[in-house]
């Protein structure tokens, strides 16, 4: 194995030993805690308990009222019912429901609607009930470490389920949960430029609070003539689930994944201790946070990432519309496009393309430090193919003077709440050696769903794929194929069936082409069987050991997170079904 891993194993031994010694005493205390408390249980906090928590966090405790409550006659919990209907508010909410900005200021609303469990649906009749369902029950609107520490301590004392929520973007339902206390990091917005002088990196770095969104980081970097690696969607929380899950974006093919850029994490552990983890101090949790998944190891308060000099940036768009008769030509084109895709991403381009019944769209090809002429040349074989078949298409390209000006010119659609999703990583070898079968699979999926290919070369400058926790399988992937099926807001049974279709009908055609393959944990299938190896690859066992040493009492739990198989959700309860 790599030398990194040998050091790593040595570092592992100590915490493991500590965990084994500790487990006897913690077991006895937690015997009665087979499930987390729910209202009605003796251990569920009394109103006075909640009030005193609210006092210690200076009034920053929020009791959830779902944002769609104005669309219902009333909202009820186990203890109260309040009148909530307001036609005007409901109408305005419906108009903006699909945009992330509607959910960002909420302490509870998951953007991936399905994971609310349909408990307060803005599009149904006001007489339909509005309840908490799978939303957090209370949330601490954190401004500092103290607020989070109080939440951790309270949840442990009262056996209450905890959920870490940042932007609520998560597609797999990881930032919501029934009868839980939310720790809301969205308002931790600090940003600081650092001249970093570390063991293996000297240069500019940016330390950003856990609540910083991609666009906020891009703006800050730009004001210093710099860029940082972040997501495509401007509102994704960059130090939250995004980088902790790996994180790809417009700079992925030039600098690698977001997790590859991290120099330090400031983390609150479940026992309230704040640590700074880097490659030499707490290097095990440092490694784990770099792609081992959000909501698992601790509460990240901030991270420090490498920043790079800004430069001119080019982007291009291509639309090949379905015209009623050219279905065969479109998939012939997809085949050509896939063949040139390796050369495109290897030149530093990030390419996001979409295939559905309306045709093919490249939106965008994006590249930092490349002039427009060079990008046009890279895409020319695709256009030549279209010209030779006299296919109709629209192509445009542009060059801007900075990353930010190119980025803000992109027509980005980040409305999350309209799709159920799942995904699969597609390795280069499949694209190159099995193109026909792959195009057939893409044709099958895109006739029933939207298929998005986010394409990159993230081999980067890593010493080895084991340097961070991200599923090593992603390093040889040419794209992540994300499947989206519209959420059905009016027929819940049909909506659940679309989730099952993703799992049982659509993704299996990609799985058949990628046996023992992987998926990117932030756009994978929430129902993925064997998620341990599919999402984490052969890093899973190491991640579970680290989880055990830093979170011996399972304070952090999220769907498909490391160790999540030891608990299950059961009628609003989170119950233990196994031990480390
Ligand atoms: C429209 C859209 C576009 C996207 N584009 C991209 C993209 O270009 N590239 C990409 O890689 N991904 C992308 N994603 C996926 C994105 O990375 C994930 O949704 C990610 O989980 C978002 O992290 P968040 O912190 O903003 O969200 P949240 O939903 O708030 O949190 C996600 C997870 O992280 C945990 N978490 C959040 N904050 C912390 C913290 N401070 N400490 C510990 N755990 C924490 C939560 O508990 C949860 O498990 C996109 C998602 C959407 C919906
Ligand atoms: C917490 O206190 C603030 C300020 O007094 C109040 O507005 C808020 O409603 C309280 N939260 C809860 C859950 O009672
Ligand atoms: C959360 O706190 C911030 C200040 O940090 C405040 O601006 C915001 O309104 C609060 N949000 C809610 C929902 O209380
Ligand atoms: C990690 O942090 C410690 C303490 O600040 C520092 O001494 C050490 O050099 C850092 N390691 C790296 C790799 O920068
Ligand atoms: C620094 O890089 C060298 C190789 O370039 C590597 O062997 C070493 O482990 C790295 N050290 C840290 C602390 O990252
Ligand atoms: C911009 O990119 C070009 C091409 O890669 C490079 O030569 C130049 O040094 C870059 N400029 C800066 C400021 O990094
Ligand atoms: C559709 O496009 C194909 C080329 O892909 C062309 O041959 C055909 O004539 C077009 N049909 C219409 C109705 O424009
Ligand atoms: C980016 O470049 C395009 C094409 O030149 C131009 O239309 C657009 O206004 C530029 N965007 C910004 C923000 O400067
Ligand atoms: C999502 O956003 C896109 C682009 O803004 C828009 O065309 C589409 O209609 C939106 N979907 C919904 C359901 O609002
Ligand atoms: C494609 O298949 C050939 C022959 O089996 C093999 O040598 C080659 O490595 C494969 N290419 C990739 C990219 O996997
Ligand atoms: C908290 O947990 C960490 C990691 O297990 C440990 O090093 C530290 O001593 C603990 N702190 C307290 C106050 O127990």
Describe the protein's architecture and organization.
The chain has 580 residues and is of the alpha+beta class. Helix content is 33%, strand content 22%. The protein is built from 17 helices and 22 strands. It has helices at 3-29, 47-56, 87-96, 100-103, 145-158, 214-223, 238-245, 252-255, 283-289, 327-346, 372-388, 403-408, 428-433, 435-446, 492-513, 531-536, 540-550; strands spanning 61-63, 74-76, 81-83, 138-141, 161-165, 180-184, 191-197, 202-209, 226-227, 262-268, 274-277, 299-306, 308-309, 313-321, 350-356, 359-368, 394-400, 419-427, 450-455, 477-486, 567-570, 573-576. The strands form 6 sheets. The protein has a 7-stranded antiparallel β-sheet with strand order 17-14-16-15-19-20-18. β10 (262-268) and β11 (274-277) form a beta hairpin. α10 packs antiparallel against α11 and α14 (435-446) runs antiparallel to α15 (492-513). The longest helix has 27 residues, at 3-29. The chain is globular. The relative contact order is 0.12. Residues 1-32 have low confidence and may be disordered. The site of one 2-acetamido-2-deoxy-beta-D-glucopyranose has 5 residues, from loops.
Short structural summary:
The protein is an alpha+beta fold and 580 residues long. The protein has helices at 3-29, 47-56, 87-96, 100-103, 145-158, 214-223, 238-245, 252-255, 283-289, 327-346, 372-388, 403-408, 428-433, 435-446, 492-513, 531-536, 540-550, and strands at 61-63, 74-76, 81-83, 138-141, 161-165, 180-184, 191-197, 202-209, 226-227, 262-268, 274-277, 299-306, 308-309, 313-321, 350-356, 359-368, 394-400, 419-427, 450-455, 477-486, 567-570, 573-576.
């Amino acid at each position: 194995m790599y030398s990194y891993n040998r050091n790593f194993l040595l570092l592992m031994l100590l915490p493991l030993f500590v965990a084994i010694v500790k487990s006897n005493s913690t077991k006895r205390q937690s015997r009665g805690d087979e499930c987390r408390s729910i209202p009605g249980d003796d251990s569920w906090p009394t109103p006075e308990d909640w009030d005193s928590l609210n006092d210690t966090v200076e009034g920053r405790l929020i009791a959830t009222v779902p944002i769609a409550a104005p669309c219902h006659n009333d909202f009820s919990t186990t203890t109260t019912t309040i009148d909530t209907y307001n036609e005007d508010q409901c109408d305005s909410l419906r108009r903006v429901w699909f945009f992330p900005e509607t959910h960002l200021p909420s302490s509870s609303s998951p953007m991936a609607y399905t994971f609310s469990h349909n408990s307060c649906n803005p599009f149904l009749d006001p007489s339909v009930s509005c309840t908490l369902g799978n939303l957090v029950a209370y949330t601490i609107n954190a401004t500092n470490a103290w607020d989070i520490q109080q939440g951790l301590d309270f949840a442990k004392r009262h056996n209450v389920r905890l959920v870490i929520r940042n932007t609520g973007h998560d597609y797999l339902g990881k930032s919501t949960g029934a009868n839980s206390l939310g720790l809301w990091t969205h308002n931790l917005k600090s940003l600081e430029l650092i001249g970093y002088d570390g063991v293996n990196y000297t240069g500019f770095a940016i330390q950003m609070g856990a609540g910083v969104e991609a666009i906020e980081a891009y703006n800050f970097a730009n004001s210093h003539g710099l860029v940082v690696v972040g997501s495509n969607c401007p509102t994704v929380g960059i130090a939250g689930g995004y980088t902790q899950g790996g994180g790809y974006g417009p700079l992925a093919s030039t600098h690698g994944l977001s997790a590859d850029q991290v120099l330090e994490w400031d983390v609150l552990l479940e026992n309230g201790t704040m640590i700074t983890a880097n490659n030499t101090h707490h290097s095990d949790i440092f490694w784990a946070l770099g792609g081992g998944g959000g909501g698992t190891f601790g509460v990240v308060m901030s991270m420090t990432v490498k920043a790079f000099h800004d430069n001119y940036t080019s982007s291009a768009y291509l639309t090949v519309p379905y015209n009623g008769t050219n279905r065969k030509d479109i998939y012939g084109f997809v085949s050509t496009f896939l063949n040139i895709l390796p050369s495109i991403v290897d030149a530093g381009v990030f390419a996001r393309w979409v295939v559905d019944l309306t045709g093919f769209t490249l939106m965008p090809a994006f590249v930092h430090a490349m002039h427009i002429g060079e990008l046009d040349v890279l895409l020319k074989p695709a256009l030549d193919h279209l010209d030779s078949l006299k296919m109709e298409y629209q192509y445009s390209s542009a060059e801007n003077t900075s990353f930010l000006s190119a980025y803000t010119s992109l027509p980005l659609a980040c409305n999350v709440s309209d799709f159920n999703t799942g995904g699969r990583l597609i390795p280069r070898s499949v694209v190159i050696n099995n193109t026909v079968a792959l195009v057939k699979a893409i044709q099958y999926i895109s006739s029933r769903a939207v298929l998005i290919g986010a394409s990159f070369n993230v081999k980067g400058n890593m010493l080895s794929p084991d340097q961070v926790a991200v599923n090593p399988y992603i390093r040889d992937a040419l794209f992540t194929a994300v499947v989206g099926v519209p959420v059905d807001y009016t027929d819940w049974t049909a909506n659940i069936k679309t989730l099952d279709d993703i799992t049982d009908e659509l993704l299996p055609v990609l799985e058949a082409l990628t046996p023992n393959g992987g998926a990117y944990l932030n756009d994978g299938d929430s129902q993925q069987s064997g998620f341990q190896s599919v999402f984490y690859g052969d890093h899973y066992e190491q991640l579970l050991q680290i989880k055990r040493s830093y979170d011996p009492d399972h304070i952090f739990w999220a769907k498909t997170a490391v160790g999540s198989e030891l608990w299950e959700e059961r009628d609003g309860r989170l119950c233990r079904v196994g031990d480390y």
